[in-house]
C-alpha cells in the first residue's frame, strides 16, 4: 500500500475513533470505514490539481509540514468542527484540492460508510488536516515543492485507485486528463524556500526513497511494565523471519539500500564515507557523509536553515533493549559528538524526541518513548552537556506513534519509526 496512505491511517488511533464516535454519535466501524475512503480519495485528488493552484498549495502544505500534529489536536478539531470555527489548514486544502467536488465526495463517502453526510464532512476536514501534515513533512524532508510531490504521487496513482471505493476515481479525475497521464504536466521545480534541505535532496538522489517499498510481515506486541520496562514492538524474536526477508530486500538493490534490520529488529542505517568534521572551537568529530553529525553540522552552519520544531535529526547508533528504556552498547560516540557540537555552538538549543511504531497501546507507546528520550537526556548530561543547552521547560518529549516516518505495516518501516531524534530549536 502507498506509504503516504499508511502514515495517514496510522494517525487514526483507537483513541481517536472512540472520541469521534462519542462526539459525532456514530458507530466506530463506520468512522474507520469513512477514513478508508477519505484518505485515498484525498491523495488521488492531489494528482488531479490544476497547475494554477500549485503555488498556493506549496505554501499551505509546506507550512503544515512544519507543525506537530498530535492526537489531541485532531480530537479538539472534532469537538469544534461543526461550529463556527476558524477555517483550518485542512479546510483550506479541501477547498483548494476538491473545490466544487467536495459535496459530491462527501455523499460518496456517506454511501460507502453509512455515516451521515454532515459527519462525513467533519471527517473530511480532519482528513485534510492529516493529509497536509503527512505530505508537508515529506515535502520538507525530501526538498520537494508541490509540483515534485504531485509527480511522485502520480507514479503511484494506480495503486491509490485500488484502495478507493468504486466510481470515486472517475468522479475525482480531472477533465480531459487520460488515466495514468495526469502526472505528465507536473514537473518538479527547485523551491527557494527549501534550500536548507539540500543535503537531504542529495541523499534522496542517491536512493533514500528505495526502502519505502520494502515489504515485511512480522508483527509484534507491546506490554506495559515499569517506566523502564514497557514493551514496544522492537521484537526480540524476529530474527528467523528477517533472515529470509532481508535476503530478498538486499537482492533487490544491494548497492542502494539505505540499511537493514539486525537480529533484534533494530534499523541499522547504512553509513557513508568516513569524514572528519572540524568544529569552531577546534574539536574534530569522526562522522560519516550523510550521517547524523554531517546533517546536524551542515544545518547549524547553513544561514538559510531555519531552526524550529519542523526538522529532526535521527540518531543512528542510539538503540535500546527490546521493550525497555535501557541503552544498548555503541551509543557513546554519537552522544559524545552531540555534546561536543553543543559546546562548540553555545547559541544552539536542542530538544530530544522519542518515537515508536503504532503497534500496541498508544498511551504505553508514548510512555516508553518519553522514558527513552529521558534516558538519552540524562546520559548527555552525564557526558558533559549542560541543561542550558536544551529547550526549556521540556528538554525531551515522547511522541509515541504519532509521527511515523515510514510504513508501519512492515518490519523495516516499524524499525525506522522507533527512534530518538534531535531538533534544533534555536541557533
Description:
This protein has 427 residues and is an alpha+beta fold. It has 2 domains: 3-189, no CATH class; 209-426, 2-Layer Sandwich (60s Ribosomal Protein L30, Chain: A). Helices cover 47% and strands 9% of the residues. It has 17 helices and 8 strands. It has helices at residues 3-10, 14-24, 28-46, 54-64, 71-80, 89-98, 102-113, 117-142, 146-154, 157-162, 168-172, 198-205, 239-252, 292-301, 332-344, 362-382, 411-417; strands at residues 259-261, 267-269, 274-278, 284-288, 313-314, 349-355, 396-400, 419-426. The strands form 3 sheets. Strands 5-8-6-7 form a 4-stranded mixed beta sheet. Helix 3 runs antiparallel to helix 7 and helix 6 (89-98) packs across helix 8.
Question: How do the helices and strands line up, and which of them pair or pack?
Answer:
Layout: H1 3-10, H2 14-24, H3 28-46, H4 54-64, H5 71-80, H6 89-98, H7 102-113, H8 117-142, H9 146-154, H10 157-162, H11 168-172, H12 198-205, H13 239-252, E1 259-261, E2 267-269, E3 274-278, E4 284-288, H14 292-301, E5 313-314, H15 332-344, E6 349-355, H16 362-382, E7 396-400, H17 411-417, E8 419-426
Parallel strand pairs: 6-7
Antiparallel strand pairs: 1-2, 3-4, 5-8, 6-8
Helix pairs in contact: 1-3, 2-3, 2-5, 3-7, 3-8, 4-6, 4-8, 6-8, 7-8
Amino acid at each position: 500500500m502507498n506509504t503516504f496512505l499508511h502514515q495517514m491511517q496510522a494517525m487514526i488511533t483507537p483513541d481517536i475513533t472512540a472520541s469521534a464516535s462519542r462526539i459525532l454519535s456514530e458507530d466506530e466501524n463506520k468512522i474507520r470505514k469513512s477514513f478508508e475512503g477519505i484518505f485515498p480519495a484525498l491523495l488521488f485528488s492531489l494528482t488531479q490539481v490544476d497547475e494554477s493552484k500549485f503555488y498556493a498549495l506549496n505554501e499551505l502544505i509546506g507550512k503544515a509540514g512544519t507543525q506537530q500534529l498530535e492526537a489531541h489536536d485532531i480530537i479538539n478539531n472534532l469537538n469544534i468542527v461543526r461550529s463556527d470555527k476558524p477555517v483550518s489548514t485542512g479546510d483550506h486544502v479541501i477547498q483548494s484540492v476538491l473545490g466544487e467536488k467536495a459535496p459530491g465526495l462527501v455523499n460518496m463517502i456517506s454511501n460507502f460508510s453509512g455515516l451521515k453526510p454532515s459527519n462525513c464532512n467533519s471527517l473530511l476536514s480532519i482528513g485534510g488536516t492529516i493529509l497536509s501534515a503527512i505530505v508537508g513533512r515529506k515535502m520538507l524532508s525530501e526538498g520537494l515543492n508541490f509540483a515534485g510531490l504531485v509527480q511522485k504521487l502520480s507514479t503511484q496513482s494506480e495503486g491509490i485507485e485500488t484502495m478507493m471505493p468504486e466510481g470515486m476515481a472517475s468522479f475525482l479525475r480531472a477533465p480531459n486528463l487520460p488515466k495514468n497521464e495526469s502526472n505528465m504536466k507536473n514537473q518538479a521545480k527547485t523551491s527557494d524556500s527549501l534550500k536548507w534541505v539540500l543535503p537531504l535532496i542529495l541523499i534522496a538522489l542517491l536512493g533514500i526513497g528505495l526502502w519505502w517499498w520494502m515489504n515485511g510481515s512480522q508483527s509484534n506486541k507491546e506490554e506495559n511494565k515499569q517506566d523502564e520496562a514497557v514493551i514496544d514492538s522492537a521484537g526480540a524474536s524476529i530474527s528467523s523471519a528477517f533472515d529470509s526477508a532481508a535476503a530478498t530486500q538486499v537482492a533487490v538493490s544491494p548497492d542502494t539500500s539505505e540499511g537493514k534490520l539486525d537480529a533484534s529488529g533494530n534499523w541499522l542505517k547504512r553509513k557513508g564515507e568516513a569524514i572528519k568534521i572540524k568544529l569552531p572551537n577546534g574539536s574534530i568529530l569522526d562522522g560519516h557523509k550523510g550521517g547524523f553529525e554531517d546533517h546536524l553540522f551542515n544545518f547549524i552552519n547553513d544561514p538559510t536553515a531555519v531552526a524550529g520544531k519542523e526538522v529532526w535529526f535521527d540518531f543512528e547508533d542510539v538503540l535500546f533493549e527490546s521493550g525497555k528504556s535501557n541503552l544498548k552498547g555503541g551509543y557513546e560516540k554519537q552522544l559524545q559528538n552531540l555534546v561536543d557540537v553543543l559546546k562548540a555552538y553555545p547559541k544552539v538549543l536542542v530538544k530530544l524526541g522519542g518515537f515508536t511504531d503504532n503497534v500496541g497501546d498508544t498511551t504505553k507507546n508514548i510512555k516508553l518513548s518519553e522514558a527513552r528520550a529521558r534516558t538519552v537526556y540524562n546520559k548527555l548530561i552525564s557526558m558533559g552537556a549542560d541543561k542550558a543547552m536544551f529547550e526549556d521547560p521540556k528538554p525531551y518529549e515522547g511522541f509515541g506513534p504519532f509521527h511515523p516516518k515510514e510504513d508501519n505495516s512492515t518490519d523495516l518501516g516499524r524499525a525506522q519509526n522507533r527512534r530518538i531524534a534531535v531538533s534544533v530549536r534555536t541557533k
